[in-house]
Amino acid sequence: MSFFTVVRLGEAALVWADGPLDAAVAASLHEALYTVIEQRAAPVVIDLVRVPSVSDNVITALAAAASQAAQQGRGLELRLSGGQGFTVTGSAQLRQVMARAYPTAA
Description:
Oligomer: single chain
Number of domains: 1
Shape: globular
Structural class: alpha/beta
CATH architecture: 2-Layer Sandwich
Strand order of the largest sheet: 1-2-3-4-5
Order of helices and strands: EEHEHEEH
CATH superfamily: STAS domain
CATH topology: Transcription Regulator spoIIAA
Number of helices: 3
Largest sheet: 5 strands, mixed
Distance between the termini: 17 Å
């Protein structure tokens, strides 16, 4: 089962997912990220530590959010398995990080 949760912590937003993120959640993830970025949440932390796989649709949604945040002069904070953390400031950078973290993304 794919799911994610959005939690607002003051001005910050945490997007937390547990389990594979597939195409079925991509549209709702895109909408949720669009909303928190438009509300100027800062920082926006996307916790994928417990996500073993993502679909290309999810990467596209994350890349759109990274681009939107970059237009506002901000980045997205990614948390990945193995204690990896990245601040991405655009869609190309997000795609590079995700390609290394999820090389088999469809």
